[in-house]
Amino acid sequence: MIAQIEALQAEVEAFAPKTPAEVEAFRIRLLGKKGSITALFDAFKSAPVEEKRTLGQALNRLKTTAAQRIEELRTALEEAALAAGAGDGAEMDMTRPATAERVGTRHPISLVRNRILDIFGCIGFVPADGPEIEDDWHVFTALNFPPEHPARDMQDTFFVEKDPDILLRTHTSSIQVRVMQNQRPPIRVICPGRVFRNEAISYRAHCIFHQVEGLYIDRNVSFADLKQTILHFAKEMFGEKSEIRMRPSYFPFTEPSTEVDVSCNLCGGKGCAVCKHTGWLEIMGAGMVDPNVLEACGIDSREYSGFAFGMGVERIAMLKYGVKDLRLYFENDLRFLRQFTPVF
Question: The whole model's pTM is what?
Answer without folding.
Answer: 0.66
